[in-house]
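Worked Example 4.2. Consider the chain below.
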Amino acid sequence: MIRSNDSRLEELRDFLQQGEAADLALKLGQINSPHGAEGEAGKFVFDWLQKNKIPARLQEVLPGRYNAIGVLRGSGGSPSLILNSHLDTAYGAAEDIWTAGRFHRGDIEAWAEGDRLYGQGVVNDKAPMAATLLALKAIHQFQLPLQGDLIFTGVAGEIGQAPIDEYQGTQYEGKGTGTRYSVLHGVVADYALVAECTNWCMTAVECGDLLVKVTIYGRAVYTPFLSRANDSPNAIVKATQFIASFEEWAAEYEKQNSYMSPSGPVVPKASIGAIRGGLPYKPIETAGVCALYLDIRISPHGDPNDVLRDLRALIAQCGLDAELQPFLFRKGYEGKNIELLQEAIQQAHTRVFPNPPATPDAPVSSMWRDLNVYNEVGIPAITYGPPLGLSSEGWSYFIRRDDVNLAAELYAMIALDVCNRE
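Applying the procedure from the previous section yields the following structure tokens:
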């Protein structure tokens, strides 16, 4: 058992405040690892673990997509803990321009200015990952005792996506792909801490997710023959009817399914994320088909079939010839039996901050994170991590160096607590 007056703890804290975690976060952030292309980042983390003499292995989740696993074995008798974070970032592939609109520097690069580390990939999720890696390194370097195993998992495929239409192949698999693979292939523990930016709040609940394609049919009519005397034959115009009805439904759906969980507010939202119709090089005819792509978050108590029934009713109300195609579903969960991990986080937090962790803002406890995978299989999981900021120009996320280093200290304290409990 580690005692608070153990001199090695002070050495560990001093070591983690020297800034190596922040430096590592920047190096990781400068490795481009968009969805489906995490291979280089995974190999970098694996090499780093080996260099620091932490037993490590690579899991090839899908071709070219890896999980990096590191393990510090305990002597036995205490709970084991996974420190989880993800390698993939939201932007970086060429087609992402259709989501980003215009790429800004912070979407695909990482750099330092003063006490800030900039870059979307840094805050999601390279900085928390660097903090967990330094926590492992410090515990190993200072030979602090562990009775339970401490496991690092840097995973592929956390960002939400799924194969659809011509976008086929393993590079489009997401929403928990790497973490699920790790669990199914033996990387299990008594608890899991998912390291993400949460503004030093913690939550054990997240929404599930349903992705749906709505295909709306019309007719191709050569522009000179187009008549507006009757309903437009244009599938794109017809789609606007559905869009208006969907937006009204989404607002009501959010109200009806929101609630306050023990881990924070759950507010499931719904959005139209993509649209396509007609041929860009042939706009001389109306579109005979238009497709909408929906992202619908579902509370842990929700049913995707209820959502699909609602969408079919919307189509009928609009009088549309249309089809529904669900192409991804991931269930949301509320963590159970989290009390030991929750207590360890609270105790570490209150060593540093004057107050216990605050209730998270709704987006923190209403998105998808990999803790859903752990909670699904019965590994109690909580997400907790440092704050992120948005530049005054509004186009680049950042995290402060001191917060990355502090996160490393907190993760180390949490791990030493959990892995040495009776």
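The chain has a mean pLDDT of 95. The CA atoms of residues 205 and 312 lie 29 Å apart. Compare this with Example 4.1 before moving on.
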